[in-house]
Amino acid sequence: MAGKALARYRLDRFSRLVTFDPIRRYSVHADEGPTEVQRITRFLRQIVVSTGATVLINHNDVKPPSNAKDERRRGHRASGGDWFAASECPIAFEPAGESCSLVYPESYKLSTDPAPFSFRIETDDPQRPVRASLIGEDTTVQRAPDFAAEKKILAYLAQDPGASGSRVATGCQMNKDTALMTLGHLKRAGKIDSVEAEKRGKATKWFIKTT
Q: Is 33 a member of any domain?
């Protein structure tokens, strides 16, 4: 990127928002170290200063470790260096089921973090939808992990009704104790039900409760 890109994108004082989605399509340095990424962030800052526009960039996280939970702050998980330092309002998106995402506005530099929220798409027909609705729901930092686990389990049971707790945990890629605890919460909330094992050693089967 260079100053000529400003003319190519036709940015002027009337611009309000400029989005780069994803940022790696615009530079080969997006996944490299701080020195290389700073070449991009300096250019993005030039857009802000020259036009007064807000710059929104979308970027991927590094892959989570296969044998442990990633305990770093969400803003620190972005692939490449310097992105967190250069971002004033980091926002992380995490899947919470097949058609639901959990949004974490986190580690804001100049204001208090907004509360996390979710959004999902509901359609009249998953295969050939005619009508679709985008539904948002507020949550809290404390509640968000439970919310994400519940959405994953509900989406899994919709595809595999009658699954055991172990199969649910494996299919949702979560700890078995977490899966069983969440299954219990969902049952008490009336969203799912179970068939207890008739014989010792047999697994309890879980399924979405029908009305």
A: yes
- Please count the structural domains in the chain: 1
pTM, 2 dp: 0.67
69 in a structural domain: yes
Domain membership flag for residue 114: no
- The residues pairing with 18 across neighbouring beta strands, listed in sequence order, are 55
CA 102 – CA 90 distance, rounded (Å) = 14
Residue 16 lies in a domain: yes
Q: Encode the chain (211 residues) as per-residue pLDDT tens digits.
A: 444 444 445 555 556 888 999 999 999 999 999 999 999 999 999 988 888 889 999 999 988 776 666 778 888 899 998 999 999 999 999 887 777 888 999 999 999 999 999 888 888 887 888 999 999 988 887 787 788 888 889 989 989 999 999 999 998 888 888 899 999 989 988 899 998 876 666 789 999 987 6
| Domain carrying residue 77 | 1-87
CA 25/CA 162 separation, integer angstroms: 43
Q: Quick one: tokens of 131?
A: 């009508």
Distance of CA 95 to the CA centre of its chain: 5
